[in-house]
Amino acid sequence: MALLAGLLMAPAAQALPMETGSVTEPAPAPVDPAPADPAPVDPAPAGPAAEGQPSAEATPTETAPAEVTPEETVPAEVAPAAPENISPPAIEGDPVVGGTLTSTGGQWNGAGWIQYSWIIDGVPVQTAGHGVGEADALAIVPSMAGKSILLTVVASTEAQAPGTEVSAAAVTVRPAAFTGVVWSNAVTGRPAAGQELSVGTPQWDTSASQGALAYQWFRGSLAIGSATTSRYTVTASDVGQKLWAKVTLSAPGFTSVELSSVQVTGVSATFVTAPVPTVSGTASVGEVQTANAGTWAPGGAALSYQWYRGTAAIAGAVGRTYTTSAADYGKALKVRVRATKAGFVTVDRFSAARTIAAGTIVATKPLSVVGTHRYGNTVKVSQGWPSGTTFRYQWYRNGVAIRGGTGYALYFNPSYIGSRVNVKVTVSKPGYATRSVTTGAVTVGRALITLKTAPRITGATSLGSVLTANPGTYSPAPSAYAYQWYRNGAAISGARYRTYRLTAADNGRSITVRVSASLIYSDTRVTMSPALKLPVWAVTVLRGDGTYRVGTQIKPGLYKATGTGSGCYWERLNGFGSSLDYVNANYYGSARTYVQILPGDVGFRSSGCGAWTTVPSTGAKATSITKDGTYRVGIDILPGDYYGYGSGSSCYMAMLSGFGGTLDEIYDNYLGSAWVIVTIPSWVKGFEVQGCGTLVRG
Question: Would you identify the CATH topology of the domain 84-174?
């Protein structure tokens, strides 16, 4: 409209472009009285006119008169008119997957270029431009199924120029249809539990090369879970049910095709292998019978058992094993094996019958005779047999049946002493063979005397004392006793009485007595008393002063003086001359002393010491010392701290490692006040004291 207004307002003298090859008088520009936009006028190109054509420039003599305006204006460029749609565009072709839609864009006036836009559900998918009259096409792919396709065209005078937009009526894409579908709806296979059913594969033409098959088996109207292949194995749940398969053929952009097979009824399966059972075990009463069912096929069958006596089922005999009883004796025994399995026909199989013979009675405990086979005792039968067994007894003496000896026990009177006795037991039980068992013969001995308290020895243990044997007590009481005395395990000749007087030969020895208790019809009971250990007695070896030869008149050893004075002198000699060189060692002091004579000594001289005796192994173990002398530590006195409260100053004490009288044997000594404390260690052998008064252990 702006262009039109410009044209209307141009001065009359303004020259307008003219069509090529025409010259007209100047005239005002024509005005279309209609309200529509004027058709566009293409201005002539600038520059010299073509040959034979008038110049576009006005000459002074050729200008048309025009109304003069105060201002001179430049003529406006006239735009070309928009194309006019005469017939709207249409979508040609069947809107189905796999097809092609086309359009020529409709009919137009003034159009030189058409822009096509294909829009699916509001989303442009294809845009193309063509010259007027040229068609555009859209191939329908599976993803377009069910969607709305709209075509919009824009007509313009030339490409990229503004134009007029017009849309074709929308169409909806239909899925494609499978063609040439061929399928047999038969179900192959026996519809028995455990068997496999199958359906064939449908065939179709190449209308959908990517077609997919889905299978679903049904039990009645219910889909069977996981049964989604062309094959299906019948289960126990299918017995009596209608079984069929549905096959679905599908592909993107295609209408699915559902195919249903014929229906078959599930039936129970039968065992392929159903063996006749066998029975193992000894065919007699009391024996275990074992059923062997064999191998059933297919596996997984539950096997149950029922035993029969003849044709009657035995109550409670429903295990794989059965122990025959007396009721089975002489009867025909068999077993039934019943196989059950879900989805299978239950099958019974019977074994061959076997006749049951009499059983063997088997002892549950060995037969024996318990008790003491001696006069005065009763022996009994010890045995073990199955319940329901009865017994008969017969006792034998030296192989001959004892009259009246038919009980389970037998008493031995004196007449049985020295006889060999045994028993035969005969056992019987219904359904079992009678059986006899005999024990081994045993010799009957004399009665035993039982010791209740052991013999013992009483009496003083000093030399010359009399010992008495207490024989002890017995059951039954013996009628007589005999004795034998022993010294250190050796019988003392002639010592066969109840009493025995100790002699010097018994010094330090162990004395025992053997007591033999006797009774008629009884074995003598011999018992030894506990040993009586005698102390070592002091035996006088030297009776007074003198010089003695070692080895003949006195043997090496430890001796004790028995004098009471304080002027005891002794010396150990290596010869018998008067020279001091013959003195190995000597002593002077209290007569309460000891001397250790060594094997190397030749002689021993004593004066004022009294008699010399052997030394006993025991002592007083005193805790106070009241007299001067030499003491054995640990035997005569105990070690420890001793306290002296005397008033003199000539107290002498010495710790001794021996009693040989040598200086080397004095471990320590003391001379001084009698008010003293002395420690006597346990490891010293002797302690000598002179002039110290009384010493008391603290």
Answer: Immunoglobulin-like (2.60.40)
The DSSP bridge pattern shows strands 254-255 and 176-177 to be: parallel
User: For tokens 């004066």, what's the residue?
Assistant: 607
Local confidence band at 160 (pLDDT 50, 70, 90 cut-offs): confident
The rounded percent of the chain whose pLDDT value lies above 90 is 80
Classified by CATH at the fold level, domain 450-533 comes out as: Immunoglobulin-like (2.60.40)
Mean of the pLDDT values across residues 531-552?
A: 91
User: Residues spanned by CATH 2.60.40.2700 within the chain?
Assistant: 177-265, 278-357, 361-443, 450-533
Residue range 37-63: average pLDDT? 37
Cis peptide before 298 (omega within 30 of 0): yes
- What's the angle, vertex CA 422, arms to CA 419 and CA 428, rounded to 5? 160
Class of domain 278-357: mainly beta
Tell me the C-alpha distance between 151 and 165, whole Å.
Answer: 11
The enclosing H or E element of 6 equals helix 2-9
Supply φ then ψ for residue 505, to 5 degrees: -65, -20
Encoded amino acid at 575, one letter: G
pLDDT at 390: 96
CATH number of 177-265: 2.60.40.2700
Integer Cα distance of 57 and 41 in angstroms = 18
Phi, psi of 22 (to 5 degrees): -135, 145
User: Which 3 state secondary structure label does DSSP give 26?
Assistant: coil
What pLDDT digit, counting tens, does each position of 543-577 carry?
999 999 999 999 999 999 999 999 999 999 999 98
Fold topology of 361-443:
Immunoglobulin-like (2.60.40)
Q: Which amino acid appears at position 63 of this protein? A: T
* Euclidean distance between CA atoms 652 and 619, whole angstroms: 23
| Cβ atoms of 348 and 306 closer than 8 Å | no
The reported pLDDT for the residue numbered 209 is: 67
